[in-house]
Amino acid sequence: MNGDIMTNKTVFLNNELYQYMLSVSLREPQVLQDLREKTAQDYNLRMQIGSEQGQFMQMLLKLMRAKRTIELGVFTGYSTLATALALPKDGYILACDTNAETTEVARKFWRQAGVEHKIDVRIGPALDTLKEIMAGSEENTYDFAFIDADKSAYDDYYEACLQLIKPGGLIAIDNVFQSGGVIEPENTKQAVKVIKNLNEKILRDQRVDLSIVPIRDGLTLARKK
Ligand code: SAM
Ligand code: CA
Asked: I need a labelling partner for 107 at 20 to 30 A (CA). Which of 82, 96, 191, 200 fits?
């Protein structure tokens, strides 16, 4: 065993091991590769979920036989497209973002992939959209929600998604490690504070089953009981 990468916990993914993992597991379709390249050229690639994370979420969606999902934070559309590709033909994604420009980039790739019909984009603050659909009695009708929009509203997003998904449904919450900010006592960033509070709240939250997957910047999975 290589002493540099073994710990008593999760094996540390140095660059070589990460590349190896991708080389024996990643099956990123061409359209997702193209979208990643376009995002790298024109925008900030750091905002986008990782390709292995997209593939992991697709696995969850297929295992759950998910049909109706919520996407908070579309950006140039990578996670939404990965989700749409994993849903059946009559799948439905409610996709929320405030940025009309990046969402237009997203649409182009969704069309190219032949999944645009599954995606219902709502431009505007995600919380307003969620409140609207809750008023429209869509509570307990979704299978899955992915939370990846503005971090300061994460607690509100979690509470709203918990109402909107069915019992047995799953909420996936991205960036719960905040690049390690959650273990820096001196870190006073608002996003870090909100996420630390939410992480601690979900640990005690008996409404859900819980697991944190240490993929990329940390992904919390909360299953509604
Ligand atoms: N999931 C995306 C992907 O895989 O490429 C990345 C999402 S990016 C990290 C966060 C997005 O949240 C940005 O596109 C931003 O415009 C959006 N956003 C910020 N504030 C928002 C709000 N109040 N409501 C909805 N979306 C918001
Ligand atoms: Ca993210």
From this structure: 191
Q: CB of 41 within 8 A of CB of 33?
A: no
The Cα–Cα gap between 113 and 122 comes to 20
Instruction: Provide the β-strand partners of residue 210.
Output: 222
Global pTM reads 0.96
Sequence length of the chain is 225
User: What tokens were used for 12?
Assistant: 């540390």
Q: Which atom, in ligand 1's list, is nearest to the CA of 71?
A: 1
Q: Could you tell me the distance, in angstroms and rounded to a whole number, from the CA of residue 107 to the centre of ligand 1?
A: 15
pLDDT on residue 10: 83
Q: Check if 103 has its Cβ closer than 6 Å to any atom of ligand 1.
A: no
pLDDT exceeds cutoff 70 at 25: yes
Q: Reduced to 3 states, what is the DSSP secondary structure of residue 94?
A: strand
| Cα gap 210→194, rounded to integer Å | 18
Mutate to test the pocket of ligand 1, among 37, 52, 99 (most ligand atoms within 8 A of CB): 99
d(CA 1, CA 84): 40
Separation between Cα atoms, residue 30 and residue 203, nearest integer Å:
38
Give the bridge partners for 150, in sequence order: none
Residue 110 has pLDDT above 90, yes or no: yes
75 alpha carbon, closest ligand: 1
From the CB of 98, is ligand 1 less than 6 Å away? yes
